[in-house]
Structures are given as C-alpha cells and as structure tokens.
Amino acid sequence: MNILIVEDESRIAKRIQRMTRAILGDALQSLTHINTLQEALGFIENNSLDLVLLDLNLNGDSGFDLLTKAVSESFHTIIISAYKNQAITAFEYGVLDFVPKPFNRNRLEQAFNRIVTKEKMVTNTTKFLAIKKRQKLQLIPIQDVLYIKGAGTYTELFLTDGRKELHDKSLEKLEQLLSHAFERVHKSYLVKIAEIKKISVASGSKYIAELKNGARIPIGRTKYKDLKAKWL
Predict the structure, then answer these.
(1) Terminal CA-to-CA distance of the chain, rounded, Å?
(2) H helix or E strand, kind and range, residue 200
(3) Is the peptide bond before 102 cis (omega within 30 degrees of 0)?
(4) Three-state SS across the chain?
(5) Are 108 and 129 in contact (CB under 8 A)?
(6) What is the C-alpha separation between 110 and 136, in angstroms, rounded?
(7) Which residues pair with 184 in a beta bridge?
C-alpha cells in the first residue's frame, strides 16, 4: 500500500507513522508525511496512492478543501481528527472511516482492516460522489445515481437525467462506500435496489434486472438469489 499522511502536528504524524508501519508490516510499500494543504494537493496530483490519512485542521486551512479533491480520486480516505462534530459531513463526502483523536493503535488498525478486508459500509452515510470534469470537481448526489458500471480501474455512473459520468474509483471501492443503497448484481455492475422494477429470467437462463427507467442490467448467477431476497 502507498499511503499519504496529511497532518500538521509533527508529534501526531510520527505516532501515525509508527503505528501504520507496525500494523501493515510488509504490506506497506511507501509512507509519506506532508503537513500543508497545498503540498498535499500537489503530491496527490503527481503520485499513485491507495490511502490518504487526513486531518481536518491544517495550520488553519480546512482539510475539507483537500477532501473534496480526494474523494474523486481512485484511493480511499480516512479522517483522523479531533473535530468529531464534522464526522457526519466527512462520511457524506465518501470517506471510508473517521478516527477521532485521541486514538489508539486498536482504533487505527480497525480502520486499516476496512481496506484490507474490503469491509462494506453498513449505514446510510455517503451522500455524494465527486467527479472530475473539465478540470473542476462536481458533486453528484447519490440520489441521482441509478446504477454504476465497472470500466477497468474506473467506473461509469448512470444518472436519473440520462447522463453518464466517469469516476476514478474502482467498482470495488464504490461498493464499499455504497452498500447501504446499492447491490453488486454482477461483476461489472452496482445497482440501486430501489430502482429495480422487475427481476426476470431471459432465454439461455440469463438473469436480468429491469430498472424503472427501462435499463436492463445482467445479474450474475451467484447473485440472483440474494438479490431477489433483498428486492422482495
């Protein structure tokens, strides 16, 4: 894993570094610490990352300025902050976890395990998906997303108004964040369960989910029974 720590307090940053190395061991490929917002934004732009550990108060700058950028990227973000009252907002923007300060190794390890085990979110928290469009960031409300299709390391978001937008996160990462409303019905598709109008069996024993807008999404054979039980 390639990890970036964005934390302005040197003492806390060193503690996070020490714990991260102890928890991840050989799974850790690189660990970088940056203490300013602008430098962190530049690093994210020019480096491949798996995870960002982000403080929300950076020498007076707001970590949310970086968070809005980060949640549109391919990596996951975990907040480490004393501002517990901002946890709900952070989750709405699509962070994987919020570790409140002060924290211990067990709590940090719990956050890391969510990535290692691909643990899914169990509560309705993520409210937006951020996309990059024409060099700007745009927040897409989850309520406007009908289904999501995997496109290699990227995903395609299919929206209620007929638009299709590209997201840098993989289908697996979005599945972790959106499991409260979406179901992985196929290796290449996440579908909002509330948008399913009909589940049927087509010729050749192929399973199909027909959405309210008329879209027909294939259902994997191993997914059919679970999906039908949840949909009913």
Answers:
(1) 40
(2) strand 196-202
(3) yes
(4) CEEEEECCCHHHHHHHHHHHHHHHHHHCCEEEEECCHHHHHHHHHHCCCCEEEECCEECCEEHHHHHHHHCCCCCEEEEEECCHHHHHHHHHCCCCEEEECCCCHHHHHHHHHHHHCCCCCCCCCCCEEEEEECCEEEEEEHHHEEEEEEECCEEEEEECCCCEEEECCCHHHHHHHHCCCEEEEECCEEEEHHHEEEEEEECCCEEEEEECCCCEEEECCCCHHHHHHHHC
(5) no
(6) 33
(7) 190
136: buried, middle or exposed (CB in 10 Å: 19+, 13-18, 0-12)? exposed
In our burial notation (b when 16+ CB lie closer than 10 A, e otherwise), range 163-181 reads eebebbbbbebbbbbbbeb
Cβ atoms 218, 204 nearer than 8 A: no
Quick one: tokens of 66?
Answer: 């970086």
Select from 108, 130, 83, 127 the least CA-distant residue to 23: 108
Tell me the per-residue pLDDT of 176-203, one tens digit each, with 9 for 90 and over: 888 778 999 999 999 999 999 999 888 7
Would you give the DSSP letter of residue 96? S
For residue 144, give the DSSP letter.
G
* Parallel/antiparallel/unpaired status of strands 136-141 and 145-151: unpaired
Q: How confident is the model at residue 71 (pLDDT cuts 50, 70, 90)?
A: confident
Using alpha carbons only, give the angle 110, 111, 114 rounded to the nearest 5 degrees: 90
Taking only the tens place, the pLDDT of each residue in 84-104 is 888 888 888 888 899 999 999
For residue 40, pLDDT over 90 is answered with yes
